[in-house]
Amino acid sequence: MRAEPSPGSPVSIPSTSTNAPAVTPAVGPTADLAVTPGRRGSLGPVGLVLAGGISVQFGGALAVTLMPRVGALGVVTLRLLVAAVILLVVCRPSVRGHSRADWGTVVVFGITMAAMNGLFYQSLARIPLGPAVTLEVLGPLALSVLTSRRALNAVWAGLALAGVFLLGGGGFSSLDPVGVAFALGAGAMWATYIIFSARTGRRFPQADGLALAMVVAALAFLPLGVVESGTKLLNPATVALGSAVAVLSSVLPYTLELLALRRLPSSTFAILMSLEPAVAATAGFLILHQALSVPESMAIALVIAASMGAVRTQVGRGKAKVKA
């Protein structure tokens, strides 16, 4: 029987070949090292997370330009449907040989993705991209504090949180309260996504679990998109833009994050998510022409410093274990 850690417990899975099945993770205080220090590519998981963050935020900026065509729910529907089709074709996941617990994990993961996307795009329909991501990232930040076993990680989380609020201008009173509520809800789902993405990665080989979960998410959201957008979802130009959003915001980032979470502790991953507002601000500037202010630039520096500190703390802890 496969061991299952408690939600958010730091875990580590040894690097495997791309054709090898997922390995049962070690669980406990000695199992939270992201990768073996000194090994070539030891910062690989961090690079995967950063690449996924860049992809998803530029995809979000592109999605904002698509909303006037089909609405927020229509954009989410296109994104999830196209992503599900792509992942099914590429991964060709097996539906046999999985336990009831495996399927339960996939279903919860899929519903979580649907809720996270739906809430976030509802917030984008009401507030700008930068503040929306700033509020959403509070979910992963809270997770990092709750799951961390080191006081220093709480310090990094606090520093990132200060940057998050600075990026929001020190407050959000000028924003649509409904949009703020949607963004905070998306943040809660994001924290849940981190937990179940890690669990799915441990239970299924490659990205098979992600592909199956994406199908669940797409089917769960399809009725909402049809009700709001109807035949607008079939417009060729809209489908093309929706496909681009799906690749940038779902296929690439979710795959990269799932792979990273096989080797990266949840606490470190969650703090790395504090980079998302900085990436979102950059994407908003380049695509939506939203300029950065001095406080926003300072906030970006804070969240980057917090993320770098979290990674250095994790790597330094691993080196100490090797010396011991």
Automatic annotation (TrEMBL):
Query: Per the record, which residues fall in region Disordered?
Result: 1-23
Q: Which residues cross the membrane?
A: 46-66, 72-91, 103-121, 127-147, 154-172, 178-198, 210-227, 233-256, 268-292, 298-315
Look up and give the membrane topology term. Answer: Multi-pass membrane protein
The record's annotation in InterPro entries points to:
Diverse_Substrate_Transporter (IPR051258), EamA_dom (IPR000620), EmrE-like (IPR037185)
In this chain the EamA domain maps to 179-309
Q: Identify its protein family.
A: Belongs to the EamA transporter family.
> Any idea what this protein is called?
DMT family transporter
Q: Organism, per UniProt?
A: Streptomyces sp. R08
At the highest ranks, the source species' classification is:
Bacteria, Bacillati, Actinomycetota, Actinomycetes, Kitasatosporales
